[in-house]
Write a structure and sequence with these properties.
Structural class: mainly alpha
Distance between the termini: 43 Å
Low-confidence stretches: 1-15, 224-230, 458-462
Number of strands: 7
Oligomer: single chain
CATH topology of the largest domain: Rossmann fold
Number of helices: 24
Strand content: 5-15%
CATH superfamily of the largest domain: P-loop containing nucleotide triphosphate hydrolases
Radius of gyration: 31 Å
Shape: elongated
Strand order of the largest sheet: 4-5-3-6-7
Helix content: over 70%
Mean pLDDT: 77
CATH architecture of the largest domain: 3-Layer(aba) Sandwich
Length: 677
């Protein structure tokens, strides 16, 4: 099979226009797009023909479809290492023309011969021929475009290769209707949907040969050394050695294979699955197109929609969600619902793939990046062969089953059972991958989701400091200052470097702002002005004091931080807490505490502990009760980041509970540091 990678992200529109403005390259690109369209159409046609030749035998149909996928993929695995070397020794233009003419002839012969043996034989030969055509094409592109446009040319070439899959699926569905109309006045023997698709596929290669014949810019002679032989065995060996040393990379590769596993299971079982739903070739084409359409949506829109999330987190989560949709797909018996689920399945698989591929480029050192990409692509080819081949075989072995539950009859076939199992396995792979790559072990994914919905997640997930950040929050008289001192003593006793600070007043500028904000003589301040003054203090505090200490690996303990603004200026002043939070997120560049300790005490009891009263403390009891409720609301939304302590207890008991909770964070930090070393 000539397509071993998923649908790629499209290049920027201006870039694609600039490279396609080159006449010679545009001609080659148009021919490649039509050829790829025909190739995808051929895949749909050969699998449909395999089922058609089975004559209604469920097991035979599944085995036949598995055979088609095996013979399409196997040549790439076996001949890949040598095909490129051999292709380099021939004249590229002549080689491409000969290959396209041969592919035209073999695809045309499949519907004419119309039997299993020739279907498989011709498919193997065509795929082997493609292995020689592809290097010649790749070597020709640099001769048609300037060097500075080569990357753009490669992007639009990939777009031509994979972007035509949904179009082919749509045309295949249309051909089902055309075939039905033709068969009404002629023999079905030569007018099935598969036959018509194969005729078009054959014509696409003849058209490509004609276009290449007119491309005189391609130099005559051998293709020099512009393409390299891909030794799958060597790339697997070297890649495995590197991947096994890195927990993150191994989780990444493991998950990327899982994404292919989920999408591959749908592709491999699509024809029999739609047959189980009492649908025909048109439905098969639409389902096939839904997978690739979903992949395109996930690749194009996913990174934008989930831009606030950590790539490490969204990768495993997207894979798990994609597999969950596969499980749901296996349980439905309605075609429309199945198509909707398939789009979502493809979208999350596409998001997982593009995220993983991006991370692979970022996480792997430049010196070994090439061999790792070769390793991943080789592994994906082999995995795809296994999934596409084994899935129909398992479905055939399971067969058809009927269940009767409370006078209701449910019919489930092998394809549904196999997809269900593949979905469960994919969810396990996604969960394991997520766990191995989880970048903030004390914060749940649900917490990030809620923060993102409030528009407050920002760049939390991109923090790179090695310190631990702890904030004390709570109402007036809750004992924050006392517990800050006690926690510092405890952490220093176990060998930690600790910096204690407060807001407002953690810097020289902060001291001046503290006087303005808390001195009763200041009088009334506009609630919005007050929120902005606190944000200004916090921005300077983070820049000058907190972030440098965290980057130095220290433990920073602050008496109040951004949650105080959310509670006091948000709920207390009856502003929108989310708006106040957004201001502080921006001011602090989304620097979020590792742990926020809330000392909870009824407002009346806390105020009774005070000797004097500053401008904030003089507010009404109702104001302070609103503040208390907001602190508790924040803790309820994100229970992993917040730790609520009953501040009416004795200070030593409060300190004991805090020390125990903080020790848990320290243990995680120590373990993480050991693994990094």
């Amino acid at each position: 099979m000539s397509h071993s990678l998923p649908y790629p992200a499209a290049p920027a529109q201006s870039e694609s226009r600039s490279v396609l403005a080159i006449p010679e390259f545009r001609k080659l690109w148009n021919s490649m797009a039509f050829s790829s369209f025909g190739d995808w159409l051929g895949l749909l046609a050969t699998t449909a023909l395999a089922q058609e030749l089975a004559g209604g035998d469920y097991k035979k149909a599944n085995f036949a479809i598995a055979g088609v996928f095996i013979v399409r993929l196997l040549p790439a695995v076996l001949l890949g290492p040598i095909a490129g070397v051999i292709a380099d020794r021939f004249d590229r233009r002549r080689l491409m023309i000969v290959c396209d003419i041969l592919r035209f002839g073999f695809y045309l012969s499949i519907p004419l011969v119309h039997n299993y043996i020739w279907l498989y034989t011709a498919t193997v030969i065509v795929e082997a021929i493609t292995l020689f055509w592809s290097p010649a094409k790749e070597a020709s592109v640099p001769n048609l475009v300037p060097k500075d446009k080569l990357e753009n040319a490669n992007q639009v070439t990939l777009l031509a290769s994979y972007g035509t899959a949904p179009v082919a699926a749509l045309i295949f569905s249309v051909l089902a209707g055309v075939a039905a109309a033709i068969s009404s006045f002629t023999s079905k023997r030569f007018a099935s949907t598969a036959d018509l698709a194969l005729y078009i596929d054959a014509i696409s290669f003849l058209y490509t040969a004609w276009v290449v014949f007119g491309l005189h810019s391609i130099p005559k002679g051998p293709a020099a050394v512009s393409t390299k032989s891909e030794n799958i065995g060597k790339s697997l060996s070297e890649g495995f050695k590197f991947v096994s040393k890195s927990k993150i990379i191994s989780g990444l590769v493991f998950g990327m294979l899982g994404a292919f596993f989920a999408a591959g299971a749908v592709i491999g079982l699509a024809r029999t699955f739609v047959g189980d739903l009492q649908a025909g070739d048109a439905a098969y084409g639409i389902l096939f197109g839904s997978v690739f359409g979903g992949l395109a949506l996930g690749i194009a829109l996913g990174p934008k929609i989930f831009s606030q999330f950590s790539r490490r987190r969204i990768f495993g989560a997207a894979l798990t969600v994609s597999s969950a949709f596969l499980v749901a797909l296996s349980l439905v018996s309605n075609l429309v619902l199945a198509l909707i689920l398939t789009v979502f399945l493809g979208a999350f698989a596409g998001l997982s793939w593009v995220t993983g591929f991006t991370m692979l480029g970022m996480e792997v050192e430049n010196e070994v990046r090439g061999r790792i990409f070769a390793f991943v692509q080789s592994l994906i080819r082999i995995s795809l062969v296994l999934v596409l081949a084994i899935a129909p075989i398992i479905a055939a072995a399971i067969g058809r089953h009927t269940f009767i539950v409370v006078n209701h009859t449910f019919n489930y076939d092998g394809a549904a059972f196999t997809m269900f199992g593949a979905g469960i396995l994919g969810m396990i792979v996604g969960a394991v991958s997520y766990k191995r790559m989880k970048d903030r072990p004390t914060v749940s994914f649900f917490s990030d989701v809620m923060s993102a919905l409030r528009g407050e997640l920002g760049a939390i997930t991109d923090q790179s400091h090695t310190g631990v950040f702890i904030a004390f929050e709570g109402g007036e008289g809750s004992g924050k200052s006392t517990q800050t001192v006690l926690l510092k003593k405890y952490l220093e006793s176990i060998g930690e470097q600790v910096l204690t600070t407060r807001e407002p007043g953690g810097t020289e500028l902060g001291k001046s702002l503290r006087t303005i904000l808390l001195d009763p003589a200041t009088g009334a301040i506009s609630p919005r002005s007050e929120a902005l003054l606190y944000a200004a203090d916090r921005a300077h505090h983070v820049y000058l004091t907190i972030r440098p200490a965290l980057e130095a690996g220290q433990v920073v303990i602050t008496d109040r931080y951004l949650d105080s603004s959310i509670a006091y200026q948000g709920a207390g002043r009856v502003l929108q807490p989310s708006e106040v939070a957004r201001i502080s997120r921006w001011a602090t560049e989304s620097l979020t505490p590792t742990l926020t300790i809330i000392l909870d005490i009824p407002a009346e009891k806390g105020l009774a502990r005070l000797d004097g009263a500053d401008r904030i403390e003089q507010e009404s009891l109702a104001f302070h009760e609103r503040v208390r409720r907001e602190f508790l609301n924040l803790a309820n939304v994100d229970p992993e980041r917040y730790f609520v302590v009953d501040a009416t207890q004795g200070e030593l008991e409060i300190s004991r509970q805090i020390n125990e909770r903080v020790s848990h964070i320290q243990l995680l930090k120590i373990n993480r540091d050991k693994k990094q070393k």
